Amino acid sequence: MARVVVVGAGMGGLAAAARLGAAGHDVTVVEQAGTHGGKLGTLSRDGYTFDTGPSLLTLPEVYRDLFAATGAPLDEVVEVVPVDPTCHYRFPDGVELDLPHVEAEVGPALATAFGPTAAEQWGSVMADAARLWDLVGEPVLQRPLRGVLDLVRRSANVRDLAAIAPWRTLRSLGRRLPDPRLRMLLDRYATYTGSDPRRVPALMSVVPFVEQRFGGWYVRGGLRRLADALADRCLEVGARLRYDAPVCRVEVDARGVTGVRLRDGEVLGADVVVSDVDARSLYRDLLPDRRAQRSLDRVDPSLSGFVLLLALRGRTPNPRHHRVLFPQDYDAEFDAVFGRSPRPVEDPTVYVCSPADPAVAPAGDEAWFVLVNAPRHGPVDWTAPGLADRYGDHVLDVLTRRGLDVRDRVRWREVRTPADWERDTGSVGGAIYGSSSNGPRAALLRPANRARVRGLFLVGGSAHPGGGLPLVAMSAAIVARLIGPA
């Protein structure tokens, strides 16, 4: 039995703690904040409840496997329900598309919106993405990856490596789609990893494939309940959760890790340390490593987000769980977020999540989570006086221009900026996904789950295989296998 300290109670850290506790290890989770869940946060006020982070669950089987391996099945502790349509899209020309939850219905929906030729072209791109998923879904995403040679070894032949083609971008793949609206739809999936479609590898076409093949899902009462259930599971398998316990250093000697030091001076001894903090913070602050820092400096952090939480009176006609309202010029948005002069996006894509769930709003009202892509805090000073409120007003005006005027329905609103994400989660600049996937190295060669220091392991969005609810749980499964049973 190893003494394990998990630094950070985000979803990756909790998943690792649950697996390691169930495997018989002595596990303590230390979290700087006063609660668990990391970016999977929540806000409740006056009968309204908001998920303040992820709002769509894909690949729920990853969490079913996690809960089955650590105790009672997932579906006994939370209610996971399909979202149908998965998303409603509005394009700059006013054309609208409901993308169905059921894969077989996607082609007919696209044919109705854009014509049969466009539907066939999208289907061809997704057929190739299915092949990519076979190549990376288990061999790459669910196993440790230590570098380029590992990737080459796991490609059965040269044709497989050519199919992965990490040098080809999602934007270049989109040129197979003559309809500009389909190209815009494909580009959007780069933002699922906080990235720029002009730089993210075409391999990311597996993201829309996964969403369409396995569907989009919601946890009744809000996705935060998934974090609560996972924290409960950690306690059930014997792990200890310590909140308001920030770590200032990972302690090491010549043999490897020896524990962690808390900011108040307390030292927790450990044979194994699992880090669920941003890799940049780990190697800059907790265990300075210039070599690791130089490698990370070559990778863009992911984009951040500006969020409005809107408590709305009344109901919206033709409600949808998820809406995406595209701008006229998508590239201008990515220029603003990732360019040399980062700035709040003037004409942003607006994402709205408004669950038809009686648990999240008073009867007859709605709780809206509104998100726009935003540059990180630092390049933009999101604490500048008045900026957050002015930009919040601007986002409401953009919604109005795109046919969703809710300004006279707002009972109250809360704003979350990249500066808030940085403060609350410790992510550098409020980067939602840790590292972006901008470029082959960033997408496929994130920091390894096993560090160079003996006994140190990494989980979470900045480590392999990446950010998002399914992937951080996969990183925890990888680490649990590397550490092994007690």
UniProtKB/TrEMBL annotation:
Family classification: Belongs to the carotenoid/retinoid oxidoreductase family.
Matches recorded under InterPro entries: Amino_oxidase (IPR002937), Carotenoid/retinoid_OxRdtase (IPR014105), FAD/NAD-bd_sf (IPR036188)
Domain Amine oxidase intervals: 11-483
SUPFAM superfamilies: FAD/NAD(P)-binding domain
Species classification: Bacteria, Bacillati, Actinomycetota, Actinomycetes, Pseudonocardiales
Organism: Actinokineospora auranticolor
Pathway: Carotenoid biosynthesis
Signal peptide residue numbers: none
Keywords: Carotenoid biosynthesis, Oxidoreductase
Highest taxon of source: Bacteria
Protein name per UniProt: Phytoene desaturase
GO biological process: carotenoid biosynthetic process
GO molecular function: oxidoreductase activity
Pfam families: Amino_oxidase (PF01593)
